[in-house]
Amino acid sequence: MSGFRKWAENRGAVELSAGVNSGTKIDKTDKFLRRLGFVQTGGNYALVLNHQMEGTSNE
Q1: Helix, strand, or coil here: 36?
Q2: Cα dihedral sign, 29-32-34-37
Q3: Residue range 26-55: average pLDDT?
Q4: For a disulfide at 33, which of 10, 38, 46, 56, Cβ 3.0-4.6 Å?
């Protein structure tokens, strides 16, 4: 992460954002990012859809 931060700063970036979409080890990832100075700015939400395979029926 430090290399990425340096790379971004050297190119004039003013902010880094990190997204967590896996749904696993969220607490550990949160602690890690906060230790690096990140602050939470939102959240991720997901809705699992029940897609039917073509040619099948719910009956």
Answers
A1: coil
A2: negative
A3: 87
A4: 38
